[in-house]
Design a protein that fits this description.
Length: 152
């Protein structure tokens, strides 16, 4: 807006750029926009970004779809992951999303992300606890004994 005001006072683009600490190209773009669409075109505006792939109605249906559980869609277990939610969205609405975006989508509908804990089937908790109590402490590094006293 200040560049437009200075232009109306008769300043050159070079002097406007120097006064505002910007490049002449920036001033040129601003003035071109103001001349084409008026000074209102110089006001700040929110970047439009891409249009959402899901309509607001489809997004409103998501909690209901997820409430049915993964097994209703032929998935084993009761845990929703981003990949599984993406699969349901793809089957239901024909829209595919990257898993990272699905987590953002789930946050907007206030649905908590669930991650499965991956553990081996052969896991033996008693053996693990015994190893942790008996053998693990011997593996920790210990400071070397020093004959000289500490000084700061």
């Amino acid at each position: 807006m200040r560049a437009w005001e200075l232009h109306q006072q008769g300043w050159s683009q070079t002097h406007i750029a120097q006064a505002l600490g910007v490049t002449q190209d920036a001033v040129s773009q601003w003035l071109k926009r103001a001349l084409a669409d008026g000074s209102a075109a110089l006001r700040r505006r929110i970047a439009s970004g891409s249009l959402p792939r899901l309509t607001p109605e489809q997004r409103a249906q998501l909690p209901e779809l997820l409430a049915r559980g993964p097994e209703a869609y032929g998935l084993r277990g009761q845990i929703w992951t981003c990949a599984r939610v993406g699969l349901v969205i793809k089957r239901t609405f024909g829209v595919s999303y990257h898993p990272a975006h699905i987590s953002r989508l789930l946050k907007t509908i206030r649905f908590s992300l669930q991650r499965p804990i991956r553990r081996a089937r052969q896991r033996k908790p008693a053996v693990i606890h015994a190893w942790r109590d008996t053998q693990a402490p011997a593996l920790k590094k210990k400071p070397k004994p020093s004959s000289e006293p500490w000084s700061l």
